[in-house]
Amino acid sequence: MNHKSESNDTLEKVASLCKRRGFIYQGSEIYGGMSGTWDYAHLGLALKNNIKKLWWKRFVTDRDDMYGTDAAILMNQNVWKASGHVGGFSDPLVECKKCKRRFRADQLENDSSSCPDCGGELSEPKQFNMMFKTHVGVDENESSVSYLRPETAQGMFVNFKNVVDSFHPKLPFGMAQIGKAFRNEIAPRDFTFRSREFEQMEIEYFVEPSKWEESFEHFRKEMWNYIDDVGIDRSKVHELEVSGDSLAHYSKRTIDFEFDYPFGLKELYGLAYRTDFDLKSHTNASGVDLSFLNEETKERFIPHCIEPSLGVDRTVLVVLLDAYCEDEIGGEKRVFLKLSPNVAPVKVAVFPLLKNKPELVEKAREVFGMIRKEIPEAMFDDNGNIGKRYRRQDEIGTPFCVTVDFQTLEDNTVTLRDRDTAKQERVNISELVGKMK
Question: pTM here?
Fold first, then answer.
């Protein structure tokens, strides 16, 4: 088996596990699915929420220079004209003349002129705007046009003056937002990597023009710290300095944080120096002054902006891919997710050894109740035999399993099992929570 097929096999295994164990389902699956859309199930949502909470803690609540925002998805169409999205937010589209499949020309290997699926001849590239267009109100005309936002950033730029007027911050300060964005991707692919609906964690950090490099470097380091927070292996993440024609029209400097995905080295996060492009564009287009007055120097200017942009869905995907492990225990193959306890949807599972013994079930419920007061992400599990429970908890990445057995009724000790090593030890119930923490 070649390296590429081995890699695709890993992605397929993770996608299969996600469906089987209730992390991620295909959108609209019972109707044949809808390409580029995914539904997060109970465990996937818990994982996603843990990832977002860690981001919000590091970048917002643990700081005193950040202001949270939750801007509307639908915005006045002039926002997207001013930002350049109406005129320039497009990708090159090619179509196979034989099988009629469509692809992004810039994502074909070696700029191929033949279809990667059937080998047919491809058309010449044409530009395709990726914004979802809609109409607001009862009339469908040019004045009622709006778009599903392709990024969360513009909602923060257009609220810059509101935040300054409400909170009177001093520079530097930032606005932070977690929210949905939508892009009509030509060819969604690679599980959740490239989707039409996704969630972003973004900051627009406003600085004095002469001090942008200091803040850029600060957020570069903070993004690496966040990678540690969610438990991604640093050795699989690489910085790419974007240069030349690859830079976005608004950026003077951009670093892409790329991950070793099974399908190749691709973008995970981005850090951009957007200069004063956005605030200046919206000032010119709206006629509203978005400059900032330095109260100490009495100087008025348009601040420059540093943007750390992190995708929620890509973080979920990378965390799952990085955590996926296979080994053998007692001669049997085992699949487990080596998730960081920071993000694991379930931190500890509590079992009665046998579910048909009322005294064990009652004691296990008692232990579960005690643990859940200290570790809310606990689960009670008595479905199937003990081996099947261990297998299930391993596959969803639960760090610890606690088993209540007949010895528990005698000496108040339980079996504590470690996910990664599968080793077990007897622990007194009174020491259990402290040991796990």
Answer: 0.90
What is the per-residue DSSP string for 68-110? EE---SB--HHHHHHHTHHHH-EEEEEEBTTT--EEEGGGSGG
Other Cβ atoms within 10 Å of 283 Cβ, number: 18
Buried b (16+ CB within 10 A) or exposed e, 24-45: bebbeeeeeeeebbbebeebbb
CA distance 401 to 424: 9
Tokens of 105: 């020309």
Fold of 3-75+150-321: BirA Bifunctional Protein; domain 2 (3.30.930)
pLDDT tens, position by position, 259-270: 999 999 999 999
> Higher-confidence residue: 62 or 140?
62
Listed by start position, the domains of the chain span 3-75+150-321, 346-436
426-434 CB contacts, 8 Å cutoff, 24+ apart = 429/367, 429/370, 432/367, 432/370, 432/371, 432/402, 433/370, 433/371, 433/374, 433/375
Distance of CA 206 to the CA centre of its chain: 24
Please check the confidence at residue 221 and state whether its pLDDT lies above 70. Answer: yes
For residue 33, give every residue at least 6 positions away whose Cβ sits within 8 Å of its Cβ, in sequence order, or none. 26, 27
Q: Is 422 left (phi over 0), alpha (psi -120 to 50) or beta?
A: left
Residue reference for tokens 């200046």: 280
**Type of residue found at 301:** F
**So what's the architecture of 346-436 in CATH?**
3-Layer(aba) Sandwich (3.40)
Q: What is the CA radius of gyration of the chain?
A: 25
- At residue 404, φ and ψ (nearest 5 deg) are -95, 120
What pLDDT shows up at residue 124?
78
Asked if residues 131 and 151 have their Cβ atoms less than 8 Å apart, the reply is no
Q: Give CA separation, 158 vs 66, 78, 357, in Å.
A: 16, 11, 63
The answer for 168, left when phi > 0, alpha when psi is -120 to 50, beta otherwise, is left
Which residues lie below 8 Å from residue 86, measured CB to CB, with a gap of 6+? 77, 80, 129, 131
CB 66 within 8 A of CB 219: no
